[in-house]
Amino acid sequence: MRPLNIFLYEWKHFSCSPFKIVAVLLFIVASIYGLHNGADLYKKQNSEIERLNKKSELEKETIVSYFENGEKGPKNRPWVDNTKPFWAIWNTPTHHYKMPSPAIVYNIGQTEQYGFYKSIKTNSSPYDSDMAKEIANPERIQSGALDFSFVVLFLLPLLLLVLLYNIKGSEAEQGFLPLIFVQTGSKNWWIISRTVFYTILVVLVLLCLLAYGAVLTNISMTDNVIWNIFFWTILYLLLWATIYFLILKSGINTVSNTLQMIGIWLLFAFIIPAAIQQWIAIEKPTNLMIAIIDAKRDKTDNIYAQSDKAIDEQLFELFPSLKQTDMAKDSIRIKRARRNSMEALINIAMKDATSSLEKDNQSKNELISKTYWFNPITFFQNKLNHLSKTHYNDYQEYRNEIQDLVNKRTKIMVLDIWNDVKVDQTKYLEYYKEFSNAE
Amino acid sequence: MLQIIKNEWRFLARSRIFLGISFAFASILLVSIFLGFYQTKKQEQTHKNAKDHVRQQWVSIDEMNPHSAAHYGTYVFKPANLLSSLDEGVNSVTGNVLRVEGHVQNEIIHSEASQMQSISRFGKLKPSLLLQYIVPLLLIFLAFNSVSSEKQSGRLKLLFLQGAKPLQIILSKTFSVWLYGVLLLIFVVIVYGILHIDSITTEILTRTGIFFLSYALYYFIISGLTVFFSARWQNATLALTSMLGIWIIWTIFLPNILMSSSEKWHPLPSRNEFQSAMKEDRSKGLDGHNPKDKRGLELKEKVLKEYGVDSLSQLPINFDGMRMQADEEYGNSVWDKHFGNNRNVLQKQKQSFQLGGIVNPFISLQNTSMGLMASDNLHHQEFLLQVENYRRVFIKMLNDKQTYGGSKTGNWSWKEDNAFFKSVPDFDYKPTKLSKIIPNYLLDIALLAFWSILVILLIRFGTKKIEIV
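ok -> structure tokens follow
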């Protein structure tokens, strides 16, 4: 029997099986629901970013109006002087964003674990309180969003199970298996053809769903990310098709095959990832950020408690050009410059503290990655997270950008204070432009 | 009926596969309880170290201006609790560190989930994961051919001839399968009890008792339905696939859809919207740091009048501290309003989700499980509320010291000594009492009972005319 005939028979079998049709329909409904969840999040994040940009623009306009009116700052805060670099930089509104990838429509990933916007100041850190995630119901976050990747990773194996579970077993129970072997010539070829039929059916469904998702966030079908997601999804599908094929090939009856299939699914979807998460939690307990707390308190206090000479030495080491400035030679004016430059030293202490924390997190990630070979769902989940830019590393990159912006802001502030730069409207707008650029 | 149950168990005990699976599963359960216990102990130690470290920093303050101390603030770490070693609930996704300081109510940050890449979508290997997802499947596998195999072998006919009634047979089969689930539950509870023997209180016993009851009810629903399908359907495969379909819809499909939908039906504000609204409301109050603030000036006039003096320098107290406290109190009312709104929305979301228990008893089970193990959102909110209440006491103590401690208005260089800072109490978390929160779970327990009755009725009226061959 040629594969085409097997396919045609299988189509008849499928179209006469309401159970299988309902399973495919449920899968499609869940996928569409998941795609809309992803698209909603994409739109929500973009509109939030737009709102914050407008807010920043408004704040900037307020400061510009002071310059236009020849004022130094708000009347009820007479100590604010925007013509000085310290205050001008303090009052330059800068938000840095983790722009959502349109591919978030397919996979929300770890998006909801992190904040996606941050107000940058000279004393900011990537681990500030305002890096908190969006306000959301923790019970929903814990159960995970029903996004397309959830449907693919957890429901797709179940759909395939429903489509394949009675292959061979049903015929064996009805007693016409030997007849089929005679007709098809090869037992394996017959099971492979039937498995391939359903795999192709699922591939077609997935392709349509990916195209539907692309419409929701305007990703072009020529965009590499779609085809990358498609590729990994197909690879995942093939993994399950192969596992199920092997079970069917060696299986005795429908019930035993179903039990084995669901057993493997439980192992990969529940037991292994849960056991690894438990092991990681024991091996590397949650970091309570003591290093950062210490940097904010003890180390900051120590920096302020240092002698003027020690502070100057550190500042000059950090920014050698300061030594040559007139300010460095002026014993009166240097006091204020020194005081306003302390943030640069605190920033260094904070960076040291965050780097130890990041190393700790990185070692957790390395441990997790080492389990990929027997933990395929976690592997594919993180693969999809990478593709939709919602992986831990994408947020780490975002934190690095924040740190770079803080470094840049601090550096410009210290240099301009010590060089006694006078800030006017043009200079202020220059700051505004410069600080918004993460490059 | 008892005889049928005994026979069922005799039959099961003869099956090596059954004994093997049971042994393997009991071992996994045992491992999960031990790991949960060990993790909780380790977490408790990490928490204690962090708490002691931060407290040490506070009590080591030699001398400091009380208001500077309010800015210095302190940190509260979310404590681990013994019960969460059975069901971790939301603990891995909520933050762990909360900064407590003057003028501002910070958000809890640094969740466990944010410190690494994704691993498990269903949480850690805790007993709850096995009891919620895997045990029901085991019960389905045990029950799906319990009646159909009797039909095929002809024993069902024999049982009828011996005088057994369909209802008796179906209920006996149900109870024998259910008993297996209950035994696993008892095993979990006993091992957990042994490990925590020193810490067991009436509160923990009551919580574990209701936890046990809710699982027992759910297992009855699953066992009853599977045996019912086994009796009604022509073959075992159909009974198995129907129950697997129900299991998938109940445990994987519906909870996610209903939770996501309830969040859409009752939306929370975005963090920025929320903070902007808070900031706007706060700006209508008094600015504690700005002596020229209009409301601050009004308060000044009032205080001068009260003390019968003309200027701040004549006041026997420090007006700065009083202004700071007035600012705090206004801020507190703003927090109460906005966080109260959020809590109301979360409450509505929870209620909508709980109503999902009408179509899906698994939702009721999940709610009671994490609720009774003190690891759901309600307990998390209670913790946040306790921290906020502590913050208010903490800041008021500092502001009062600034006001009445002997300094004069404008004297920011005035400092309090170490004895005062040592006298400021540390945050002491009081676990939420079950009696306070139990009304929140009555609906879930009632729905589980409702489903159990429904299953009994289904068996009672649906198996009257079962085919015996």
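Chain A touches chain B through 90 residues (CB under 8 Å).
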